[in-house]
Amino acid sequence: MNIDLIPYLPELISVSIIAIFMAISPGADFVMVTRNSVFYSRKAGLYSALGVSLAIWIHVAYSIAGLAIIISNSIVLFSIIKYLGAAYLIYIGWKTLQSKSNVDMERQLDSEGLSNVAAFKIGFITNALNPKTTIFFLSIFTQVVNPQTPVWLQVVYGAIISLSHLLWFCSVSIFLSQPVLLKKFHTYQNAIEKVVGSLLIGFGLKVAMTSND
């Protein structure tokens, strides 16, 4: 069976470009991956990046199923996602602010402070409970993706978005966990912890004020 992709090429290009800008735009995912890469280890950052990229598939699934509109239009469902996400970001931000800054950076490189599963869960939950991501997918699958687009191609779009996030955040983690940079971070670790913690709390408050209009 021959599949003609030409009619969907503009759509594919649009989704790909949007996916890249979505991944690199500063947000809670970026701060969380940065936090785990700098304060724990490269491995922790990479597992967080994996968690973010796999959480994307939750948004892809309900968008393809047509549930994005229902979630967006339901005050109760949207509020549950919104406040859970906000509470989680504020909680992690508060923990970061309260963390002790005199931890040996060499010990952090051994990833003793955060297990792979914990790092993965942090990335996954941060993205999955972000209502802004829900709104983003709603706009893509209602304004960019044609309702007549085959489901398998919509899954490909989801893979592009997920892969874009994985590649970007893995790159961020690898870059920020360079030994030379970690030594610099260690010098200003206390200040960095305060900034990162404050940013996470700020994102949490921003998420709490997100409107589904």
TrEMBL record:
Keyword line: Cell membrane, Membrane, Transmembrane, Transmembrane helix
Q: Which GO terms describe its cellular component?
A: plasma membrane
The GO molecular function terms of this record are: amino acid transmembrane transporter activity
Q: Which residues form the signal peptide?
A: none
**Which membrane topology describes this protein?**
Multi-pass membrane protein
Which Pfam families does the record cross-reference, listed alphabetically?
Answer: LysE
Q: Which InterPro entries match?
A: LeuE-type
Does the entry feature the keyword Disulfide bond, yes or no? no
- So where does this one cross the membrane? 12-32, 44-62, 68-92, 151-176
Name its cellular compartments.
Answer: Cell membrane
Q: Note the PANTHER family from the entry.
A: ARGININE EXPORTER PROTEIN ARGO, TRANSPORT PROTEIN
- The molecule here is called Amino acid transporter
